[in-house]
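Narrative of activities, Objective 1.

The group set out to show that a structural description can be obtained from nothing but a protein's sequence at a throughput compatible with the screening campaign. Below is one input-output pair from the validation batch, recorded exactly as produced.
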Amino acid sequence: MKKIILLGILVSSLFSFEELNKDNFHQKIEGKNVIIDFHAPWCPPCKILAVNLEEFDVIKPDNVEVFKVNIDNEQELSRIYKVRRLPTIILFKDGEMIKQYAGIKTADELLEISKNDFK
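Output recorded for this entry:
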């Protein structure tokens, strides 16, 4: 039963942030501080980061938004932003990429990153 509940939490967390695609990507990030999680549904570390992003969403600064990009569906975006490892988060400020991080980050690390990089 515990496994089913945990699986439900992981699956629901994957879909709680808006998924971007090549058609809405630039419109959604323009004029904002944005963290984009480049992920794949088959990637176990991506699922861990998804949970950490949910925790971060509770404590994040008000001026930061989080979106997701599924690299399986959006290979062109992955290629443009040179996503080579999963999970990868990319920070955008006013529509411009400012920093890229690969690997799992905790909610506290995400908070620190957002405070430092979105000055």
